[in-house]
Amino acid sequence: xxxxxxxxxxxxxxxxxxxxxxxxxxxxxxxxxxxxxxxxxxxxxxxxxxxxxxxxxxxxxxxxxxxxxxxxxxxxxxxxxxxxxxxxxxxxxxxxxxxxxxxxxxxxxxxxxxxxxxxxxxxxxxxxxxxxxxxxxxxxxxxxxxxxxxxxxxxxxxxxxxxxxxxxxxxx
Length: 172
What we know:
Blueprint: E1 2-7, E2 11-17, E3 24-29, H1 33-48, E4 52-56, H2 66-85, E5 89-93, H3 95-103, H4 118-131, H5 139-155, H6 157-163
Parallel strand pairs: 1-4, 4-5
Antiparallel strand pairs: 1-2, 2-3
Helix pairs in contact: 1-2, 3-5, 4-5, 5-6
């Protein structure tokens, strides 16, 4: 089972699945802090039989606040620690990499004034999930599904063909 995580300082979008399956997904709120994340992730890995975890590689911009910076570094550290403890393979997936695969564009879209438009990215992930028939409730969940789809397509060629609109229904 693959598990993909889209972590932020207040919540973690997650998605899990195997090639040919409809993925499961949701959002875990970080109300209890880092220990709660550690316990939840350990339970998720053990209960779902996860053997590969991918998380969104953090992006730290020039205007990132100090407290946010620490959380952006702490969350991957906890993810890596849990994966080490459970002997689960873990990898960081850069946002441009999974976005290029999932929504067709990996570079940040610029708007008037040069500011990156994060709302645009969120909308694109939601649209991509809707196009695949995946019912979701938040952009955190949508991003995790994008990371999961990227990992499965990269590692399983048959999944790439079956999940692409170009080839859907046309496989011999």
